[in-house]
Amino acid sequence: MRISELADATGVSIPTLKYYLREGLLHPGRARGATRADYDDTHVERVRLVRTLIDVGRLSIDRVREVVTALDRPPESRHLLLGTAHDVLRQAGGSPPSETMTARLAALGLPDCVDSPASTQLAQTLSAAEEAGWHLTDATLTSWFAAMKRVADADVVPELAAMPPGDALRHAIVGNVLTDPVVIALRRVAQEALSAERFSPASEHQASR
Amino acid sequence: MRISELADATGVSIPTLKYYLREGLLHPGRARGATRADYDDTHVERVRLVRTLIDVGRLSIDRVREVVTALDRPPESRHLLLGTAHDVLRQAGGSPPSETMTARLAALGLPDCVDSPASTQLAQTLSAAEEAGWHLTDATLTSWFAAMKRVADADVVPELAAMPPGDALRHAIVGNVLTDPVVIALRRVAQEALSAERFSPASEHQASR
């Protein structure tokens, strides 16, 4: 298909598609003469992925380029594959985890920080919260980790083992990007449900019954 | 203190402080002549809050203005207070929840969408995931809601009932802003732990034992 047809199929404008091509987010079409190129279903799929990462995941263009580069050359090991997914999803920047934080997380039985993007992200987000004056107790962290294992149970599915590495990597990245907001929304709904139980006028009136 | 001292105390530059004053994120100091104003600890605290909301929460300036406006005029009811917190934290935009999605969530025993920013956010994030081709089963949603109730148990603490409304509202907003990234990082660590159990070369070798 021509670039105008790719635009129709994806709902993304031609100037934006040309920008994606220049920035390396979208692989070139097959050349047809000096000024025309042909695009196919792999381009449609890639454009949709890029839009998901930008619109829902709020990833920067640089981060999206890292994702598509990783997808084109995925690691062979299933386990490294998840590390790759976590690495591209993690917010850029942040100082390396402190030894104190690493030791604290290890003492809680959480995986340690060496070579794990996920553990680094945990140490960094916890440090950021503490620097802003918000302390999470060890009991809360342990309880939250158990809760998030229950969430992750639906993420790390056996089907991943049978997928080609590129598909498994896309599954891990897109799954997190699309469902992190759902997990956070469920946290809010759960807060509201508990707040209604604990603080609503009805429960205050009924507390003495 | 002078604005230069407020800058020293908070690590935020004078031009940025003046920008916060112009944008209504920071309340004016007490006037001392035509060109000078005096600032106090309430300004230090407010500037730190604004930085947390911008740096960690990645809230827009408009959203931060909504937060500080709400903090200055908090609702009296504890329960409405959480709704106010959820409303300012929710991503702007998005279409209203569809009737199908509202009915689906109600059938699962999740609170319905009427007048609840949290339920609206859940319906919107789920619809966005489905539009991008990612379907979550009812079983996964139910299990995730139970997991997030465990997380929320540490959020909706009895101490909230004793706080002045403004403090309780700040607690709810800052708590979510600072710990949403921790919850998401714990999800990644949990994925990694489960992936190691299920897919690592060692577990593959040991699977037949």
Q: Concise description?
A:
2 copies of one chain form a homodimer. Chain A has helices at 3-10, 14-23, 41-55, 61-72, 78-89, 99-107, 117-131, 138-152, 165-199, 201-206, and strands at residues 30-31, 37-38. The first copy, chain A, has 209 residues and is mainly alpha-helical.
Largest interface: A-B, 74 and 74 residues
Low-confidence stretches of chain A: 204-209
Q: How much helicity do the residues of chain A have?
A: 55-70%
Approximately what portion of the residues of chain A adopt beta-strand conformation?
under 5%
Overall geometric form of chain A:
elongated
pLDDT averaged over residues of chain A: 88
Oligomer classification: homodimer
Number of strand segments of chain A = 2
What is the radius of gyration of chain A? 22 Å
What topology, given as strand order, has the largest sheet of chain A? 1-2
Total helical elements of chain A: 10
Helix/strand-derived category of chain A reads: mainly alpha
**What's the order of the H and E elements of chain A?**
HHEEHHHHHHHH
Reported for the largest beta sheet of chain A, the result is: 2 strands, antiparallel
What gap, in angstroms, lies between the N and C termini of chain A?
Answer: 71 Å
Structure description:
The structure is a homodimer of 209-residue chains. The first copy, chain A, has 209 residues and is an all-alpha fold. Chain A is 66% helix and 2% strand. Chain A has a two-stranded antiparallel ribbon with strand order 1-2. The longest helix of chain A has 35 residues, at 165-199. Chain A starts with a helix and ends with a helix. At the A-B interface, helix 5, helix 7, helix 8 and helix 9 of A face helix 5, helix 7, helix 8 and helix 9 of B.
